[in-house]
Amino acid sequence: MLDFLSGVIAILIAVTVHEYAHAWMANKLGDPTARIFGRLTLNPLKHFDLFGTLSLIFLGIGWGKPVPYNEANLRFPKRDAALIALAGPLSNLLTALVCAIPLKYLSDTVFRTMSLYGLVGQLFWLSILLMCLNILPLPPFDGSKIIGIFVPYRYHQAYQNYLHEGVKYVILFVLFDSLVLREVFGFSILQFVVSKMAMLVMALISLGT
Fold first, then answer.
1. Mean pLDDT computed over every residue of the chain
2. Catalytic residue positions?
3. What 3-state DSSP class applies to 17?
4. pTM score, two decimals?
5. What is the CA radius of gyration of the chain?
6. What is the rounded end-to-end Cα distance, in angstroms, of the chain?
7. Which residue among 18, 65, 66, 73 has its CA within the 20 to 30 Å range from the CA of 111?
């Protein structure tokens, strides 16, 4: 029960930091939309997405409530939209780096016997997982918006259609992958891909700290 509670807290922290970073970057680049809608905050309730967050808690795959922004307020819409999207995964990477320090250098102290150690450990791993999940080029994940900077203008409309129409197909795939492939066949495509990416990132962080 304690591990589950720590996991839920870690997820809420990781998602909140992630969505706050989107809002902060958008505001920094000249668009106050997220701030006006109350998303420039570290209050987890403001970033809770009923399906996405609960899916992340119980299925291991999900997202927070998308942060709104208005491209009309951005000086360089194509570049700035990619930067706003990139801010989320980068914030999770930064969180993981911060968590890695006590996990590595305080592991032999009294800190290890505290319940806080378990929370920090889960936050470290979940932050890496959330980062790796969100750099996938699939809507509604951030990677689908990050790649927008590389899409030629002549394909802009097709790309926008991909962002809007692709969400429902990705959600269906997530449900099929989690509820059918994983539960029936014991294998999840998304978890396999994301976990492999996460293990590589974790190894690199461990080498650098």
1. 90
2. 19
3. helix
4. 0.89
5. 18
6. 31
7. 18
